[in-house]
Structure formats: C-alpha cells, structure tokens
Amino acid sequence: MTSTASWANSAVLTERARVTIPGGVNSNIRLAAPPVFFERGRGARLLDVDGNDYVDYLLGQGPNFLGHATEAVTEAVTAAVGRGMVYGAQSPLEVEAAERIVAALGWAEMVRLSMTGTEAVQAALRLARAATGRHRFVRFEGHYHGWLDNVLVAAGGGAPGSLGQLASHLTDSVLVPWNDADALADALNAHGDTIAAVIMEPVMINTGSMEPVDGYLARVRQLCDEHGIVLIFDEVISGFRIAPGGAAQRYGVAPDLATYGKAMAGGWPVAALAGRAELMSRFGTGEVNHSGTFNGSVMAAAAVIATLDILAADPPYERISEHGAALKAGLVDLGERHGVPLRTQGLPMAFHASFGSPEPVTDYRSLQRLDLASYSEFAAMLARYGVWVARRGIWYVSAAHGERELTDTLERVDRALSDPAVRSA
Ligand code: PMP
Hints:
This protein is 39% helix and 16% strand. The protein is α/β, with parallel strands linked by helices. Belongs to the class-III pyridoxal-phosphate-dependent aminotransferase family.
C-alpha cells in the first residue's frame, strides 16, 4: 500500500451496522477503533473490505498469538465441528486439553474451561470466597479483569466503569497501587481478615505493559500466605504468551489460582481457570458452582490442544521476542528521526508505545504523565497507513510476524510520522 487507505465500503457498512447493532460494534472497546470492516485475516496480516492490507498488531485483542487462520488450529476446529459441537456431557478432547494445560503451566494441578476471561475471573473469585469464608478482595490500579459489576472500573480503578453498573459491588474490593508491596501490606493489615483474594495481572500488560519490580511478586506471595489469602494471577493476556508457563514460570512465583485465555487457543473463544487441586476440587464436589452450556465444547478443546501442541513442538517465543525487540527499537528510532517523542516499554511480545519521556513507568499513576491522548490519535491514524494497532498503546506480536512485516511496518510508520497531522498533535 503506497497511499493512505480509503474506507468507502467500510463507511457504508458502518452506517448500516449502526442501525441494528448499537454503535455498530459488539464489544464496547471497539467503539474507539477506526470504523474498518475486515474481509479476512491470514498470518500477521488483515485485509479489509476496501482491499487495504494491514500488518496486524492488535491480534484481535491478543488471541491470534500464532497469527490469523493458523492451519493446524483451523483443521482441528473444523474436524471438531464435524463431530457435533456440544454434548452437555464430556468428550475425550476435554481431558486432553486439561492435561496439556496443566503440563504446560507446571504449577497448577486442575483446570476448568469457560468461554471468556471475564467468566474465569468470576469463578476464581467465587472459589476464593468459598475457600476462605471471607467476602472481599484486593485489586490494583490499572488492572483489568473483565466487564462485570464487581471488577469493571474507570480512572484506574477508582470509579465504576459504566452507567447501570451496581457500584455497590465495588465496595467488596479494596483498591491498592500496584508494584508497591508496602501499600499491599498496609491494606492487608487493615482489612486482612475480610479478604478472600488478591487478584492482579502479574505483568500489567493492559496498562503500560509493566513488569513487576524485582521481588514484588515474592513479597505478595508471602503476604497472602501470612494472611491466609488466595493469590489469583489474571493471566488472560500474559498466559502462554510470555512463556508456556506464564508469569509463574517467568518470575518464579506461583499463584493459588490463575485465569487464562487468548493466546491459549489460536483465536478460538475459550478461557481457563487453573489452580491447586485443594481449591479447584471444590467445583468437583459441587460445593462451589461453575457452569456454562458451552464450557469445554469440542471446538474449544480441539483449539487448545492444537495450539499447545504447536507451542510445544515449535516454540515461537524467541522469534516473537526478537521481532518485538526490533520493532520497539525501530519505532523509537523513527520517532527520533522525526522529532517526535515516541517511546516504548515492556515485554517484546506485548509492549506499550506512547508519546512522552523515555523514563520507564512502573505504575498506573506514572503512566498518566505520558501523552496518551496524542498517541491515541496517532495510533488511529496508523490504520490509514496500513498498521492495525490498539489506540491504548499495546502492540501484540504473533508467531506469524516476520522480516517482511517488520520492514513494511517501519516503512508505514515512517510515512505516518511524516503526516502533517502528527506535528499538530
Ligand atoms: N482479564 C484480563 C487481564 C484481560 O485482559 C481480559 C480481556 N482483555 C479479561 C480478563 C476479560 O477477558 P474476556 O474479554 O475474554 O472476557
């Protein structure tokens, strides 16, 4: 693509969609995205209904970790569909999927599948409440745990995220700044005997792609043990992406429960709650309810098996890290050449880009010092130049991103940075 994209067909569809679909989208996060309709995805590329191609760094908000339409996953799911999709009973594939997940994670003993990360989080919180007989939980500024009433927040966590939300549900949680073990210790000293769980993204990819500071997770683990609190890692983004065993493997600290999704199934909608048998077995006795008509469907199980087989047989982690590192450096370099303070930080497979000082940010509050608004405009503009990326700054890299994508991306970003709109941003 040499000129900027024209979205004539997308515009017609957008207008049509808005008549029958509120906002023209089926998930509110998409309201902020450029109104583009896609025809197909293959590998690291997207093709829209006007014939424009994009290098994709959104990956459907993360699930397409292997790239779009990975053949082995498509074949496994297609074969599963042909066997009938859901039985209201077990299939052998579920057992295989659970065994694969447990084996890959290393620390967990049992697993339950659900459809979405949101549901897996709710199952984890319920289980923690049941196990401890306590009702509250600790959550952290800037962390995302789904769209339901007890976890959806705005302004980093200080306010409800939606009209119609029962804000009273947020009083069941205590909000604490992340990456600050003393702040957590203080909160637990004040409220510990009412706290069932501490839930966090162990690497805060949703907000600034921030890693835990040295020793933080170990101290969190210790504090949870001292207070008899269930530690939940929400690894819906980081799971299977930053390492086969997720944050527990990368940082050497195991939670009691953890939620997974996205990278686990090559794009198929499925999530998991994994954990220690002592906790998880309470679902099995029926004491704690976790249900869902479509949980563990044959397609979901087949997609998990096919994806985890690929991740084990041909681990893409090094390749993805190299691509991400080269892309991060290339973006910073382009920013310098254009006199624009383009900065990047975080793990190369899911890093954060913004405008602002190159100093690393380590929590939600310091992130607010960056020029997130101007960057968001720039990210939206990148779509016109053939780079599909989230406005909130995350760049996801997949196993399908290669040299050509890197070259194309940097060339397209270079042209976008020459756009007069960037100067006036
Ligand atoms: N937890 C985290 C850390 C997430 O990033 C997300 C979604 N991005 C969720 C939970 C919710 O997952 P889902 O959108 O599948 O409900």
